[in-house]
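User: what does the whole thing look like in 3D?
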Amino acid sequence: MATRKKPLDPGFRRGDDRMNPTYAVIGTARPKTDAPGKVAGQTLFADDIVLPRMLWCKLLRSTQAHARIVSIDTARALALPGVEAVLTGADLPIPFGILPVSQDEHALCPDVVRFVGDPVAAVAAVDEETALAACGLIDVVYEPLPVIGSVDDAAVTPAPQLHGYADEGNWHKLVHLQFGELDEGFQRADLVREDLFLYEGNTHLPMEQHASIAHATPDGRVTIWSSTQTPHYLHRALSKVLDFSPARIRVIATPNGGGFGGKSDPFNHEIVVAKLSLVTGRPVKIGLTREEVFYCHRGRHQALMKIRTGVTKDGAITAMDFESYLDGGAYGSYGVASLYYTGALQTVTYDVPTYRFRGARAFTNKPPGGPKRGHGTTQPRFAVEVHLDKIAEELKMDPAELRLRHIVKPNAVTANWLQVGTVGLEACIHKVVEGSSWKERFRKLPYGRGLGLACSSYITGAGLPIYWNDMPHSGAQIKCDRGGGVTIFCGSTDIGQGSESVLAYVTAEVLGIEPADIKVVTADTDLTPVDLGSYSSRVTLMTGQAAMQAASRVRDLIASAVATKLDVPADRLVFGGRRVFDAQEPDTGLTFREAIGVAEAKHGTLGAVGSYTPPRSPGRYRGAGVGPSAAYSYSAAVAEVEVDPDTGIVRVPTIWIGHDIGQCINPALVMGQVEGGVYMGLGEALMEEMAYREKLGLVHKWPSMLEYKSPTTMEMCDVITYLIEDPDPNGPFGAKEAGQGPLNPVMPAIANAIYDAVGVRIDEVPMSAPKVLKAIQAKAKGKDPRYGPTGTPGVTWPERTYVRTPAQGGNGRD
Amino acid sequence: MPDDDLIQLTNSVARVRGTFRVNGEAREALYKPHTTLLELLREDFQLTGTKHGCELGECGACTVLVDGVPVLSCLVLAQAVEGQEVSTVEGMADGPTLHPLQQAFVELGAAQCGYCTPGVLLAAEALLEDNAAPTRDDIKLALSGNLCRCTGYIKIYEAIELAAARIRGENAEPRNETLYGY
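Assistant: Here's the predicted 3D structure for the full assembly of 996 residues, as structure tokens:
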């Protein structure tokens, strides 16, 4: 349970945090540092920036799902008054992509378009209307190519390949990993169960449409402001594609109006405006329309999954065999990582002694899939948790009890060589079971009402960077002002989760001052040390650790100077209440401002840097790079549903969720992340879905906020949240993540609750009314009371990588 | 895509002069007659606090008040509001003092990314103007046209309830469960 303290009075003078584990800042609810600007409408998002002489950019996008570009004629567009420049693929020939192994995108398609919406030309003009009009004057001749509309299509259409670097035909990537003796595991089982699940693709739908503005200046530099979660990777991509020194490119990530993973790739439009600014010598801005945001996508991959698990009579897992088939869309994006993630974290929730994962990601002619909140772990978590519910039913066990008995042990190394740290899942389960009156109500509610339970776990930052190197994942720099102010510089990007605030809280705690005393400068490649970006739930842990190290170094410098001044041993000095004082005689001390002066006189200009690299994971096999993390968060949820048997409409009145946060840095912000995760999970569970008109050229079925359904206030459920604190030694003050994990148990909890309510299994997300109704009708006719997939495409799996488990005395490599 | 004639037509449209009242101030603009209120506010008056998420009337991010009534500024022509009082998020604070709704949003973390926040605040302001003590269902109904992708709306409801209580003169503080969980 979270520490319950009243918000502090700003004039509060705290005691010695070395003697007393109660923190002054950490663990207390307080406002986000950037909230006042946001509620006043003063925060400048990318599209709010206007520069003198600015041009507007519009992209001409492909109307074809798959075609060769025969010709592009830009003459009429260039002749339109007000048009300053027109670019085509020939102007930006160097490919890029977020992963080093998938450099398969071009800022503008040079020869082939691969989905409806793929950009082929760009215009810069004096205003948006003129730019749009000019796009209409560009004549493109396409020669259609065969369209791959689904994973099944990709499986039977090895040629033409969407990308020549694919593992095989149009299978972008094929993975086959085995840990331990699977057959032996299944032989030990009392029950072996196999299930198939389908998780439809869905998208982030951030409220802010992507926008970027670039300004190339006569001093040979170019600056870009962009709504990106990953300024560092954009910096890399710009340098590569523009063939321009990164030392002369400045990327400033503006506050993101929502990200959820959708602004984590370097995007074609960001590169295009930079190039247009270099060509015209004027600032160039682009603001995507909502329809274009759907074409950026990089959202949840559609995943078809097969799971086979062996269990003993008491529900202990003896073996698990998991297959996933992902619809990757037209480009690589994060897809290789997404694919590995669909097989990585099955083992960190419950004890799984032997495990096999086979995964395939297909290229199709759709907007590319990528990382959405829960990246690649959300779909398999749905499968695992519904599958376990069915197993519990067969074993006549309470599903909560089955899970409680087999939670992974703290500090375990899993069969696939992931190093687990603290595990707060047991407390999470107890809380939601108690809160929902589970024992009194599960399987006892009247027809049409039900309860379902599910659990999950998630990484707190990826253990390895995207570009493998030995440099830190996160850096922070602190500068102290003689006036008592402190500025912290860090490359992290605030996407609404509160990462700027975390830097202020951590620094304030270490230096014994207030968050309001701290100025935070972030996400500017000219000013701030590299942080890899706001993805993989890494920011609180990694930037928090970097900030702690920098602040501790500053604290040591100040302490050494104050110790001399006061003639007190440095290790007896306490930093608190904006003072530095003697623990034994608290009246002997200096104000923090005086202490800075004393320290600056002794050491010179006062500042320090800090950085953080996660611990090395024990896995050494090919593929071991995805899954390791400094710490894993755990969540458990119970959903209550009401199912209308006549329509199949599912209503969710309440979700109880317990989240193992390690230690709250700011509980109010953790609450917000958990509630937001539940909300987004509710949308995925019931309505959100990327869909395409397969017979009409594979155009997106509903690229708008009206028709792509997401929960409004009228659908949102009540959320009862329990924060479980069990500090993890790898987290700053023990903190783990909250931004992604709490989404994962929501969909399976709802699916399990639907079964409790009406006795049908919906093995497919979203669990929309027509599917539920079909299953109810099937049940009434005595047919299989289930809605879900029935088969998998044929894949010739590559030769397996066999890795002995820790229990077999393995070495993590083979 | 427009053809050449349509482009010519668009470019040749004569601008019109208009007089507006925005956040209590008189403003003038020379604008094309098809300019929306959203464009007028953001591009002519540099009031970029008003956001856009779709420009098709689907998301509510561009909500402003016209004579106290919430409207989607992306669907309203600038011409239609001449002479009426337009209120945007920039006009909510009383000088340097945040409006009680803004203050409650800050305290509870009801603004995460902050992008839907201006529209939500104005919809909430209009609600409280009509109903000083709204129930949770009243709030849900009033905000049913405003999408928020970060918060799950819960902190928003709680912030509106907190602000409503304070506006009514009650000495209201955030609930412990709101900030720390159950």
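In plain terms: The CA atoms of residues 110 and 155 of chain B lie 5 Å apart. Residues 117-130 of chain B form the longest helix (14 residues).
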